[in-house]
Amino acid sequence: MIRVEGITAFVAVVESGSVSEAARRLRLSKSVVSERLAELERSLGGVLLHRTTRKLALTQDGAAFLLRATRIVQEIEEATAEMAVRRGTLSGPLRIAAPVTFGRMHLGPALYPFLAEHPEIQLVLDIDDRRVDVSSEGYDAVVRHGPIVDSRLVVWKLSRSRRILVASPAYLDRHGTPKTLADLDGHKGIFYTNRGVADWRFQTPDGAIVVRASQAVGMNNGDMIRDAAIAGLGIALLPAFIAGPAIGEGKLVAIDVGYRPEAEFIYMAHPEGRNPSAKLRAVAQHLRTTFGDPPYWDPAD
């Protein structure tokens, strides 16, 4: 007989890439996870994983079985969550990925009271600025700032995200304050490299206008972009949730060039074809309510 514990162990090993990491996620010993894998292979009559000292690789049988095994694990988790909802509680594992700066400044503080209210939820929050593959890396959802182009994801809007063109007072004293979009051409820009382009987009009555300033530095983290702007290295286009405190403290100055940057949003996205669990829907609604509309971090005009 095939045991559910073996299927769960197999999926966890594939998603995490190692027996030791799967054991950590499942809160089991490595020996227990290995035994469950071996028992599953004996029950199926085939080898699912090639094991070496350095890595694990799916066999053809393993790759074929993984699709159904993943669905089985998901269905069990969702059924368990639904039963918890019927009892008036939310429970079970939940794995979410989010960008570093937003996660540290706003997502974490928003989630802590929710988790205190629902102590049976076992949240794993992975903070990383890279673009994770939600489905293949085993996440229930990802929180992102900016556009999501992956057609395999179902996207929920959590909040608006206003962006502000900023520079330090010292930089503006040295180079002058731009008043128009054309003035930006003569300035140095600090750009977010994860977007893959070094430009700024603004809303005008005639549509979007793209401005490409000379790149002073490129970085893949919002905190560091803010700090580089404070250090006077150039002009940066930052979300209000990052730039707001520095503007309030006088470390950065908001620059008005006559037009606002294109609007962006904070999103939560989950894999297409997977029914979102009750606890994930509850988290999303809690975040919408906590962030507000307009969001609490937006500076007053």
UniProtKB/TrEMBL annotation:
Q: Which GO molecular function terms does the record list?
A: DNA-binding transcription factor activity; sequence-specific DNA binding
Domain HTH lysR-type, by residue range, is: 2-59
Q: What's the family?
A: Belongs to the LysR transcriptional regulatory family.
**PANTHER family recorded for this chain?**
HTH-TYPE TRANSCRIPTIONAL ACTIVATOR TTDR-RELATED (PTHR30537:SF5), HTH-TYPE TRANSCRIPTIONAL REGULATOR (PTHR30537)
> What does the record list as GO biological process?
DNA-templated transcription
Q: Which organism is it from?
A: Rhizobium favelukesii
Give a short account of what the protein does.
Transcriptional regulator of the ttuABCDE tartrate utilization operon.
Keyword annotations = DNA-binding, Transcription, Transcription regulation
Entry-linked SUPFAM superfamilies:
Periplasmic binding protein-like II (SSF53850), Winged helix' DNA-binding domain (SSF46785)
Q: How is this protein named in the record? A: HTH-type transcriptional regulator TtuA
Pfam families, per the entry:
HTH_1, LysR_substrate
